Automatic annotation (TrEMBL):
Residues 645-730 form the Cytochrome c domain. InterPro entries: 6-blade_b-propeller_TolB-like (IPR011042), CBM6 (IPR005084), Cyt_c-like_dom (IPR009056), Cyt_c-like_dom_sf (IPR036909), Cyt_c_ID (IPR002324), Glc/Sorbosone_DH (IPR012938), Ig-like_fold (IPR013783), PKD/Chitinase_dom (IPR022409). Binds 1 heme c group covalently per subunit. This is PKD domain-containing protein. Residues 185-217 are annotated as: Disordered. The lineage of its organism: Bacteria, Pseudomonadati, Bacteroidota, Cytophagia, Cytophagales. Keywords: Electron transport, Heme, Iron, Metal-binding, Signal, Transport. It comes from the Bacteria. The keyword Metal-binding applies. Residues 1-27 form the signal peptide.
Amino acid sequence: MRNQLLWKPFLGLMLGLALFSCKTDPADDPNIKPEDNRFTKVVLTEGMDEPMEMTFLPGNRVLFVERKGGVKILDETTGEVTLVATIPVNTKYTNKAGVTREAEEGLMGVIAHPDYEKNNWIYMYYADPTDTKHVLARWELKGNELVESSKKIVLEVPTQREECCHTGGGMVFDAEGNLYLTVGNNTVNPREGSSNLDERPGMENSDDQRAPGNTNDLRGKILRIHPEDDGSYTIPEGNLFPPGTEKTRPEIYTMGHRNPWRPTLDSKTGYLYWGEVGPDASVDSIWGPKGYDEFNQAKGPGFFGWPYFIGDNFPYNRHNHADSSYGAPYDVNAPVNESVNNTGLRELPTPVVPAMIYYPYGASEKFPELGTSGRSATGGPVFRKADFKKDAPYVFPAYYEGKWLIVDFMRGWIFAVTMDENGDYVSMERFLPNETFSSAIDMDFGPDGSLYILEYGSAWFRGNANSRLIKIQFNRGNRKPNVAASVDKTAGATPLAVNFSSEGTNDFDDYDQGNLKFEWKITNTSGFNQILTEANPSFTFAEAGTYQVVVTVTDTKGETNSASLEVTAGNEPPAVSIDFGGMNRSFWFGDKDLNYIISVSDKEDGSSSDGTIKPEEVAVTFDYVPAGFDPIEVASKQSGVESAAILNLGKNLIEQSDCKSCHQYTEKSIGPSYQAVAEKYPNSAENTAYLVNKIINGGAGVWGDHAMSAHPSLSEADAKRMVDYILAMDDVQANIASLPLSGKVEAVIPEGENGQGSFLLRASYSDKGSGAIGSLNGVDFVALKAPFVDPQTSVDRKGVQLLTTPRVSFMMAGDNSQFALKGIDLTGIQEIDVLASITSRNGAIGGSVEIRLGSPTGEVLGTSDKIGIKEGGGFRPPQGVSMQEWIRMNANRAKVQIKSTSGIQDLYFIFKNPDAKGEQVLMSINEIEFKNKIED
């Protein structure tokens, strides 16, 4: 007994030690939610032309297709995107009035065969360029070559091209090699935003009973086929209708879909999941329920309700369009298709499967976490760790095992949906709530375990600069430090005392907080080497030179990360300033004449006020920068005038030297003309070095007997400036005239421009250097733009939701949601108008706007009255009115008269409505208009 009593504590201790020593990685514990900062967003490529769907190829490659027919491969190893082929496709429809417009169809989907490494097969779904049909075809893709002769048409779906919309085109393979294909309803959107039930003659394209509700039509379905090696297909067992069933198509797996989008399969259960885009009705009405988007699950074949039911099987009412009468709602227990356009079975399959998740424009009572505003359910993958190889580096943690990750094209969120052991809905939570995934048209896990997201971009039917392919990587181990480095002076005369700062450096791992080690290494090409080990050291550069500074931060696990900067000692940078006569430096209010005075000073060179810096050495330009170009970015680039001004430094050095006693610019003197020298020696580095040597050391015998004098006291840098000017005499840039240092410019919008660009007044001076230290540049500029600011340029956002179709919608969600506009000149500004959209369509409820100075708690400059719902003037502007003008005309304006304030300021816009529930949308912000006078 005694031994037993002694043994039990010892056994408990041993078990405890064993458990402690075998403690698993938190990423392997399904009960531990990972920190958001363990996920990293990586942008792989941008600027695509309407990307539609992606698939993964061996060798770290991603294949994606674009609507107009582009087939492209991104090689992640090199970062290069290759256009493999352009598939001929149709992208238009022509209505009964003969008007041709863009359709949603084109090249709509792509997928690689599961045995791609062996057979090189890919499948693409596209709109035939001539015939009214959609086609599923197979090609061989060998490397970056799409073998045209290998094409085999697998399946065709007859369609119509008199009306837009809804194509589907998403594809996924199951473990048995069966291919699932989503097919849209190919039907016009009804004006009332309800269901499509118009049976009148000639209105077939407004009757979804002829397609989604028709058992004998492939549209409005998810098809399941088994592609065969010869390019044909067979019907797998278990589809909705057995082969040979009268008035049915055996390819149908599920039916009753309006616009099914991206499908995925749970590899463990075999259940099928997809997003489905619903109709536009914003409220319940006599036609039936409001519109809902859906995220759906099929545990097997079935009928999902459209066009008779939506959401949780909410029924539509019978509607006789001929006499505008209404009847009883459709019976979910006995659905029938009695349309004259039906070619299939009258009695439809039961039970009707309700949506798993459904949500309207406004707040959802059942799923309030999905928020409000526009909607376009895309879909997404179900995570199963077993789907990835053991060495896949970025596999998500066990917390997401079995969860369905869903994304909405317009709302920009991703939710993780939790289901029970039967696959039934339990709950959902926002994934990376501080991130917005705009225009997500496809989303799937890649072979490396990352979550890949294909973003279409801001506007329909065109290439968008903000279309992107990104991926989300999970880091399960120790994280490297995040390094930030800055210095208070990057250049100056010696001795140059500077203060380095590592402010902003951090480490996401708690055990590293306060334990990071810093090493600042200062070097130059002359062999200087200094190491500082403080987090924020100071240092004085005694000798002139250009120094490289690298700060390396090391955490407790030995992981390092670095940042670098450059410091130039021995030359004070020039100071350039534009006096704009007290006018606003941010906005142009239509003034034609703009007066300015430019001053330049440099510690080594002198100043423009005393004439030591000559006017021709200062580059002054005034230009119109078209809309779409960032004037600040333009201002940062060297211009032709600036090149001419730099060359003028050399010309002035020539004028001040004894060179003019032997040389003239265009006429021969004792020595050759500079023009002749430029003609004899092409502008190259070798010729420049040769002539610099001749100027400093002298020479003879090239142009005659008269020897060229040496100039040993002339620095090599000044001699090079002189040579640069001479060799550039034939260049156009050398003869470009600069504006004077003071005067008046005329602000006139160029013909053909819309006035949404900017006027840019820019002054630049490159100094003469100091000894061995090269030239430094000083710049000042004034960029005047139209007094309308896009809210997308804002920062410090809270409660902002971005939607992206058919254009960007910038939604303020929740009481006290906010954003900031940085660096706005308030000189002369009296009123700021927030141009908003608050309609039943976007589910907004309205509110007021408060503007504060400097911070969310800064001085209140002004507050607007509360604004509420105001329905717009329609989706399309009248002829002769631009979309931008139309939006401004119909905007609901929150007018804020502000206190008199001058100078460059940061403004915080606070949106208020204490009645808002959670993240309920208050308003969609179109623009912010700044006014220099108060208007009624």
